[in-house]
Specification:
This protein is of the alpha+beta class. The protein is built from ten helices and ten strands. InterPro entries: Aminoglycoside_PTrfase, CcrZ_PhaseVar_Mediator, Kinase-like_dom_sf.
Length: 257
């Protein structure tokens, strides 16, 4: 990474799971660098959903380095996730034809609930399956599978955690970390956001801000995807031997019924 810049540039790892992100700084110039990010980043930048893409360079070894605007700002607090700017940006993402078109060109096809359920059934180990709440959850997912069909398919971020929402110092909101994006039911994102952050008595108001009505069918779809995602998280934390977080999600699951 250093050979892209002069010796006067300071380059430090930006953290994250992949180890492929870096901060670069020289005097007043600041950049966020990433190795081998998806071509999807260019469309996200053009749509104003992530900070501006400055340049892209291909290295001799075939790696592609992207440089984005490094903005002063902060992640949203959990208590701020009910704001209209969050609803507006998520609506913009779900309604974006350029985003949907790019993901399709990159070979992504809509992920149906039955595919997610098959993946989950392969992932869950025997020990977790013995937990009563996991057994109850799997029964729910199988029984409701045929009732949650949705013809609308949009670009879903799939990890709308509050720490992926970046609010810049000039009050511009961005949604970052798109590595897990897929095409699917908008209830995937809506369910996570509402179940994790918004009090139940405010769901209807928030969904109205987003631009749709809170129907029984949407409620069922959101719950289905949240249960599915929670089970996936429980297995992931168990695999990482992070049992405190695993148990926290098991408790969350028990409170979901």
């Amino acid at each position: 990474m250093e050979h892209l810049f002069g010796q006067e540039w300071e380059i430090v790892p930006a953290g994250g799971a992949t180890g492929e992100a870096f901060f670069a700084q020289h005097d007043q110039q600041r950049l966020f660098l990433k190795r081998n990010s998806s071509p999807f980043l260019a469309v996200l930048s053009a749509e104003g959903i992530v900070p501006k893409l400055i340049w892209t360079k291909r290295l001799e070894n075939g790696d592609v380095i992207t440089a984005q605007q490094w903005l002063e700002g902060r992640e949203l607090k959990p208590s701020e996730m009910d704001q209209i700017m969050v609803a507006n940006l998520l609506n913009k993402i779900h309604r974006s034809e350029p985003l949907l078109g790019m993901l399709k060109r990159l070979g992504k096809s809509p992920l149906e609930p039955n595919q997610l359920l098959k993946i989950l059934e392969l992932e869950l180990d025997a020990e977790l399956r013995e937990l009563p709440v996991v057994e109850k959850s799997m029964t729910f997912l199988n029984e409701e599978l045929t009732k949650i069909r949705c013809e609308e398919k949009v670009v879903c971020h799939c990890d709308v955690n509050h720490n992926n929402w970046l609010l810049s110092d000039n009050n511009q909101l961005y949604l970052i970390d798109w590595d897990g994006a897929m095409i699917g039911d908008p209830a995937i994102d809506l369910g996570m956001l509402l179940h994790w952050y918004i009090p139940r008595d405010k769901w209807e108001d928030w969904v109205n801000l987003y631009g749709i009505q809170l129907t029984d069918h949407l409620l069922l779809r959101m719950k289905w995807y949240v249960i599915c995602q929670t089970l996936t998280s429980i297995q992931w934390y168990k695999n990482k031997t992070r049992f405190e977080e695993m148990n926290r999600w098991v408790l969350y699951l028990e409170n979901s019924f």
